[in-house]
Amino acid sequence: MPAFVYMLRCKDGSLYTGWTNNLERRVAMHQQGKGAKYTRGRRPVELVYFEEVADKETALKRECAIKKLTRLQKTYLIKETLETK
Predict the structure, then answer these.
(1) For the chain, what are the domain ranges?
(2) Domain 3-84 has what CATH class?
(3) Is the pTM of this model over 0.90?
(4) CB of 7 closer than 8 Å to CB of 49
(5) Considering just the CA atoms, what is the radius of gyration of the chain in Å?
(6) Is 49 exposed, middle or buried (0-12, 13-18, 19+ CB in 10 A)?
(7) Would you tell me how many other CB atoms lie within 10 Å of the CB of residue 43?
(8) Rounded distance, CA 72 to CA 67, Å?
(9) Of 50, 57, 82, 84, which one is least surrounded by beta carbons within 10 A?
C-alpha cells in the first residue's frame, strides 16, 4: 500500500515532518488540531513538501532521514520540489 512522507510549515515558521497513508486526510487532521501534538498549537499549517513511497516501512525510513536534515537542507528539498512542478 502506498504511503506518503510530508512536511508542513507551521504558523511559527517551523517545519514538521511526518508520514501517512492518506495525505489529504492527515493534513486536514493537522488543520483541525487533531494531528500531532507538535502542530496543535502552531496552526494553521501549510503542506510544503510530500513524496509518495512504496509502503509504510519505506515511509518511516524516509521520514527519519528527513528529520536528520538541517533546516537549510529541508528548505532546499522544498525548493527543489517546487521548481520541478
Answers:
(1) 3-84
(2) alpha beta
(3) yes
(4) yes
(5) 12
(6) buried
(7) 15
(8) 12
(9) 84
By the 8 A CB rule, do 70 and 38 touch?
A: no
**CA pair distance 45, 14, nearest whole angstrom:** 10
Q: What is the pLDDT of residues 23-71, one digit of tens each?
A: 999 999 999 999 899 999 999 999 999 999 999 999 999 999 999 999 9
Give the other-Cβ count within 10 Å of 76's Cβ: 12
Written as one letter, the residue type at 29 is: M
C-alpha cell at 75: 528548505
| Residues shown for the chain | 85
Three-state secondary structure string covering 23-62: HHHHHHHHHCCCCCHHHHCCCCCEEEEEEEECCHHHHHHH
